[in-house]
Write a structure and sequence with these properties.
This protein is α/β, with parallel strands linked by helices. It has a single domain, classed as Rossmann fold (3-Layer(aba) Sandwich). It is 35% helix and 17% strand. The strands form two sheets. The chain has a five-stranded parallel sheet with strand order 1-7-6-2-3, with helices on both faces. The protein has a two-stranded antiparallel sheet with strand order 4-5. Helix 3 packs across helix 5. The radius of gyration is 16 Å and the shape is globular. The chain starts with 18 loop residues before the first helix and ends with a strand. It binds zinc ion (ZN). Zinc ion binds next to helix 1.
């Protein structure tokens, strides 16, 4: 049997992780602001300790195989939430092509693809990031983040069913709100966000 995908030392119990690693994850986090434009906001974990390390390694240190841990945790949350029956599509926060070239992969896309494989949701790519923006984490206040991401995305096709948008981390919710806004401009549908992690204090 394969070992824990994170520490490599013990047998996995759940989500490809051993009990010791599972115990270091803060499942569930309360997001401290209302995001009215979303019909649902599901966040799987608190952005700290093991999950923080996994996401940083996944995004910046080429540990692309970590998508499976995050996707399985998020699938579990999605199925437990019972909202899944209202949704037809799954997608992800797109990256600008310059960023994509630099990283070589979109971490949110890898997660969304696995969740689609785990469920009956259909993976579609109706959004493009057409404007090159600064990294949201580098901007301190909510207003700057909102301005930075404004008009950064384009809808490239009609969406004829409710959609879940996947991302790895949510902080100010500026990015996901901007995406939801442009989708709802043209489509009378429900939008849910499914996020791997959020810091508990923003
Ligand atoms: Zn482990």
């Amino acid at each position: 049997m394969t070992k824990c995908l994170y520490c490599g030392s013990k047998d996995p119990v759940k989500f490809d992780l051993c009990q010791n690693c599972l115990d270091n994850i803060g499942f569930g986090v309360k997001f401290n602001q209302e995001v009215d434009i979303l019909d649902e906001l599901l966040i799987a974990c608190e952005y700290k300790s093991l999950i923080k390390d996994i996401i940083i390694d996944f995004k910046f240190r080429d540990k692309t195989y970590y998508y499976k841990i995050l996707a399985d945790i998020m699938t579990d949350l999605l199925l437990k939430s019972k909202i899944i029956k209202d949704y037809k599509y799954i997608s992800f926060v797109p990256m600008h092509k310059k960023d994509l070239k630099l990283r070589g992969y979109n971490q949110a896309e890898l997660i969304a693809k696995e969740i689609a494989d785990n469920t009956f949701l259909e993976l579609i790519k109706p959004i493009e990031k057409s404007k090159f923006t600064q990294q949201q984490v580098r901007l301190a206040n909510q207003n700057d983040r909102k301005k930075n991401i404004e008009n950064a995305f384009e809808i490239t096709r009609k969406i004829d069913g409710n959609i879940i948008i996947v991302d790895d981390v949510i902080t100010s919710a500026a990015t996901i709100s901007e995406i939801a806004k442009i989708i709802k401009d043209k489509n009378q549908i429900k939008i849910a966000a499914l996020i791997a992690a959020s810091p508990s204090i923003i």
